[in-house]
Amino acid sequence: MDRSLALFAIGLIFGGGIGFVVAAGNGITFDGHDHADTAAHADTDVATAHENMDHSAAHDTPIDVPSEDAPKVSLMLMADPMAGYNLHVTVENFVFHPEGASLAAVPGQGHAHVYVNGEKLSRLYGEWMHIAALPKGDVTVEVSLNSNDHRPLAVDGTPISASTTLTVE
After folding, report:
1. Domain that holds residue 149
2. Which stretches of the chain drop beneath a pLDDT of 70?
3. Cβ-based neighbour number of residue 49 at 10 Å
4. What separation in angstroms does the CA of 138 have from each of 30, 148, 161, 167?
5. Which of 48, 84, 164, 165 is the Cys-Cys partner for 132 at CB 3.0 to 4.6 Å?
6. In whole angstroms, what is the distance from residue 142 CA to residue 26 CA?
7. Are residues 101 and 139 in the same domain?
8. What phi, psi does 141 have (nearest 5°)?
9. Whole-number Cα distances in Å, 54 to 23, 50, 60, 79, 145
């Protein structure tokens, strides 16, 4: 009986490893979609980017929304009493929709991207986020609103975002 259990465990380990190798070899990643499957991005400009092997270009092409009833974003960044910082993001005319991440754009829904000194830190799917640490010196934290397919939302070409700058000792 003990030998059967050991063989079963060994089979699970090798089977799981082979599964990961096969998935990686076919372009499947852990970020929510199959990069090898352009159909996964149907009805978006992302499909064109996959065909041209320029994934980031489609994610950088803004979606211009009408100024009337356009989404708005504001933020507050406060030191956490224990460590790091707490980011509070408030939105208007916009719904955080984590279930739609990496799917087709739907007006008024999506997620946010959080940047520290211009470098993307994370996606944000709700109002609150804890930032464990910030670099020393003058630091700018920016939050942009993005559609489900990751493209930034904009009004007349200006990204819908908010930022704050603080000095970290």
Report:
1. 63-168
2. 1, 5-9, 11-12, 14-59
3. 19
4. 34, 31, 19, 4
5. 84
6. 35
7. yes
8. -110, 125
9. 21, 6, 11, 38, 22
